[in-house]
Specification:
This protein is an all-beta fold and about 120 residues long. It is built from no helices and 11 strands. The protein has strands at about 1-5, 10-15, 20-25, 35-40, 45-50, 60, 70-75, 80-85, 90-100, 105-110, 115-119. Strands 2, 4, 5, 6, 9, 10 and 11 form a 7-stranded mixed beta sheet that branches. Strands 1-3-8-7 form a 4-stranded antiparallel beta sheet, with no helix packed on it. The protein is globular and about 40 Å long.
Length: about 120
């Protein structure tokens, strides 16, 4: 079992930056692929970015490419999502997730952190 605690959300103006953090605890000796998802009001949860446990591979949804960067610190069992040039359409609750390596199937979830971008 893995517990994920995500943080770092807040209110920011369009064009601003935020860095989300996800701290993992529990069975962290097992490698996991990590990801960030988001859910806006009235919309389905969508994939934002992911990184393999080794850090060797990353994936992004098209709308955040060039603006968001996912990274991991295995020593701290923490994954980050650096978000630059934020847009109002990035407003959502952001969730950290973890899954078995190589599957891109996420089974553990954080509680979510709100990101609000004002125009």
């Amino acid at each position: 079992q893995v517990q994920l605690v995500d943080s770092g959300g807040g209110l920011v103006q369009a064009g601003g930056t935020l860095r989300l953090s996800c701290a993992a605890s529990g069975r962290t000796t097992i490698a996991y692929d990590m990801g960030w998802f988001r859910q806006a009001p009235g919309k389905e949860r969508e994939f934002v970015a992911g990184i393999t446990w080794s850090g060797g591979s990353t994936r992004y949804r098209d709308s955040v490419k060039g603006r968001f960067t996912i990274s991991g610190d295995n020593a701290r069992n923490t994954v980050y999502l650096q978000m630059n040039n934020l847009k109002p359409e990035d407003t959502a609750v952001y969730y950290c997730a973890a899954g078995a390596p190589g599957t891109w199937q996420f089974v553990y979830w954080g509680q979510g952190t709100q990101v609000t971008v004002s125009s």
